[in-house]
From TrEMBL, chain A:
<dbReference type="GO" id="GO:0034399">
    <property type="term" value="C:nuclear periphery"/>
</dbReference>
<keyword id="KW-0175">Coiled coil</keyword>
<dbReference type="GO" id="GO:0030687">
    <property type="term" value="C:preribosome, large subunit precursor"/>
</dbReference>
<dbReference type="Pfam" id="PF05890">
    <property type="entry name" value="Ebp2"/>
</dbReference>
<feature type="compositionally biased region" description="Basic residues">
    <location>
        <begin position="270"/>
        <end position="298"/>
    </location>
</feature>
<keyword id="KW-0539">Nucleus</keyword>
<comment type="function">
    <text>Required for the processing of the 27S pre-rRNA.</text>
</comment>
<keyword id="KW-0690">Ribosome biogenesis</keyword>
<comment type="similarity">
    <text>Belongs to the EBP2 family.</text>
</comment>
From TrEMBL, chain B:
<dbReference type="Pfam" id="PF04427">
    <property type="entry name" value="Brix"/>
</dbReference>
<keyword id="KW-0539">Nucleus</keyword>
<feature type="region of interest" description="Disordered">
    <location>
        <begin position="1"/>
        <end position="39"/>
    </location>
</feature>
<dbReference type="InterPro" id="IPR026532">
    <property type="entry name" value="BRX1"/>
</dbReference>
<keyword id="KW-0690">Ribosome biogenesis</keyword>
<dbReference type="GO" id="GO:0019843">
    <property type="term" value="F:rRNA binding"/>
</dbReference>
<feature type="domain" description="Brix">
    <location>
        <begin position="46"/>
        <end position="235"/>
    </location>
</feature>
<comment type="function">
    <text>Required for biogenesis of the 60S ribosomal subunit.</text>
</comment>
<protein>
    <recommendedName>
        <fullName>Ribosome biogenesis protein BRX1 homolog</fullName>
    </recommendedName>
</protein>
Length: 298, 312
């Protein structure tokens, strides 16, 4: 109810507003007050004046500025490219544009400097403080290497997966072939019984192949392997070492560039399968449900 | 007398050498046993004061420090209190002998604004800084000398409109290290790139790996969204207002409104359901169906539990 009242009040307000607007003659046939478009200042003349005022008339070597069109390829051809928001949103295209602009500038700038008889490169044995420290650059290199290794690893895994897929197919073929052979053999036996055939050829071939079967392992012989969950618990709770403060960050763990924390990996329960397809053990139904079931049985 | 003659001869020799130098190409590398030139020709005494207000984020602080390391002609100053008026900065610059200023202003502990100003006389510009990546990020693999002079690269759009050209001049004066600056190195190994895209200025810093034009990014990178330009330094009449600018508060409000719309819809649905379900539509005698028995086979729902047929 309170909402309704408030909305009534609002409508009354808007009514009075409208009346006022009508009285002052703002109301147009569409019954709406015209909102004046917001004015954005763009004082070109004043800007021109200011630019002239504070511009420095220095030689190029003091300023080192260059204007380069990234859409123009170094050969002078217009590169085909769409403009506007699509480039701004596409990371790769945008960075490529900036890169090309910088590249043009670098080429042109260095040529210009050489023309002014200014050498640009430093000698090989010239050491000076760099913008990034050696420590930092080492980290960068490690990161690069890490990424490369990860790529290789994933490639390898991909190859292995493909191989496994192929292997599965081969196995299926073998099984089918075996089934076919068996069927043929049974057919042959049938025919032999009925007296349509004189001889069973496959008996000879079996003898020559020498059917061998591995003797089955006895149950006691198998070595006991604890399951994964037990394994982890042994590692966690078994024998010696400090158990406290095990989850704290240490200088080593925080400086470690390779591993990033992931809940899926670091906080999953050991030995449990993950993923959506894993079905949970059917849980005990609630009390009401159980009683209902009990009643029905009686 | 003899000395003078010799000097003249050497002059002649020099001239000859100059002629021959013009013909042969210049080796690009400076030899290590060449004595360093004394830098006495430092005429462009441009100095930039780079500092910030209190309450900027760590990322903004790192960006500021990166700019300081890349600009040998910069000076630092301690953080300014938020309550101080901006025109105090003009006096600070005067005290520090600076004629340009880059002032980072943090708002709400998340938004970063940058003032770029030509100090005593203006103009000054206020930007919103977006998409900040600092030099310490490991993705940027380049490196350059700490104090070498950058080449400045500009988009041709900077010459098309007046406000952009004003900005270009301001950037050139601010970011280019003066020639023969005592702290600078006489080599050229990086490019500052300013390009305009989407009505914003995108800043990138590339290392020149080889002089055939292969580059690697050094960082930092950031995007400047111009808000307003003033005639004076940190004040004065407005020269330009960016019509495309949306304040971060407004942006956040829109995002929130979008989420809130979901809740509002749900409440409306509930309300309309209430109005449609008016409760009892017809008065029934509740004792009417006392003697109606349902056979257990026909029972549905809760009635199933009321009766069951005895097994014989």
């Amino acid at each position: 109810m309170s909402d309704n009242e408030s909305s009534d009040a609002e409508s009354i307000d808007s009514d009075t507003e409208l009346q006022r607007a009508f009285a002052s003659g703002h109301l147009k046939p569409g019954l709406n007050v015209e909102v004046a478009p917001k004015l954005y200042i763009n004082n070109v003349a004043a800007m021109k004046h200011k630019l002239e005022e504070f511009k420095q008339h220095l030689e190029w070597i003091e300023r080192l500025d260059l204007t380069n069109d990234p859409t123009q390829t170094p050969g002078g051809n217009q590169a085909t490219e769409e403009q506007g928001d699509s480039v701004a949103d596409d990371d790769f295209k945008r960075e490529m544009k900036f890169y090309r602009q910088a590249q043009d500038t670098a080429l042109e700038g260095i040529a210009k400097l050489h023309k002014l008889n200014i050498k640009t490169r430093r000698p090989e044995d010239y050491f000076a403080e760099m913008a990034k420290s050696d420590d930092h650059m080492k980290k960068v290199r490690e990161k690069l290497l890490e990424r490369q290794l990860a790529m290789e690893r994933s490639e390898k895994a991909k190859k292995l997966r493909d191989l496994r897929k192929y292997g599965r197919k081969v196995q299926q073929d073998v099984l089918q072939k075996r089934q076919k052979e068996k069927k043929e053999m049974l057919d042959a036996v049938k025919k032999f019984r009925k007296g349509q055939k004189d001889k069973l050829e496959f008996l000879n071939s079996l003898k020559s192949n020498g059917m061998k079967q591995k003797p089955r392992q006895k149950k006691g012989d198998r070595k006991h392997v604890p399951n994964k969950r037990r394994d982890f618990k042994n590692k966690k709770f078994g024998f010696g070492g400090q158990k406290k403060r095990g989850k704290y960050n240490s200088s080593g763990s925080s400086a470690d560039m390779r591993k990033t924390f992931s809940i899926a990996v670091n906080q999953k329960q050991q030995g449990k399968k993950k993923g959506k397809n894993y079905k949970h053990k059917p849980s005990r139904p609630g009390k009401a449900k159980r009683q209902k079931m009990k009643n029905r049985k009686r | 007398m003899g000395k003078r003659k010799r000097a003249r001869e050497s002059d002649k020799n020099n001239e000859k050498e100059n002629v021959s130098k013009e013909i042969e190409t210049l080796p690009a590398t400076v030899y290590s046993d060449e004595p360093p030139k004394k830098q006495t020709k430092w005429t462009n005494k441009e100095r930039v004061l780079i500092f910030s207000s209190r309450g900027i984020s760590f990322r903004a602080r790192h960006l500021m420090i990166d700019l300081r390391t890349l600009m040998p002609h910069s000076k630092s100053e301690s953080k300014m209190d938020r309550k101080d008026k901006l025109f105090v900065i003009n006096e600070m610059c005067e005290m520090k002998n600076c004629n340009k200023c880059l002032f980072f202003e943090g708002k709400k502990k998340q938004d970063l604004y940058l003032w770029a100003s030509n100090c005593p006389r203006g103009p000054s510009v206020k930007f919103l800084v977006e998409n900040v990546h600092t030099m310490s990020e490991l993705k940027m693999t380049g490196n350059c000398l700490k104090a070498s002079r950058p080449l400045l690269s500009f988009d041709p759009t900077f010459d098309k409109e007046m406000h952009w050209s004003l900005l270009k001049e301001l950037f050139i004066q601010t970011f280019s290290t003066p020639n023969h600056h005592p702290k600078s190195q006489p080599f050229f190994d990086h490019v500052f790139t300013f390009s305009i895209l989407d009505n914003r200025i995108w800043f990138r810093n590339y290392q020149i790996l080889e002089e055939d034009g292969s580059l690697v990014e050094i960082g930092p990178r950031f995007v400047l969204n111009p808000i307003r330009m003033f005639e004076g330094s940190f004040g004065g009449t407005t020269l330009y207002v960016n019509p495309h600018y949306i304040s971060p508060n407004e942006h956040r409000r829109v995002l929130k409104a979008k989420v809130a719309q979901k809740y509002i819809n749900r409440v409306h649905v509930k309300k309309s359901l209430e109005t449609r379900n008016t409760g009892q539509s017809y008065i029934l005698d509740p004792t009417d169906d006392v003697f109606v028995t349902i056979r257990p086979e026909e029972a549905t729902g809760a009635a199933k539990n009321t009766f069951y047929r005895k097994a014989d």
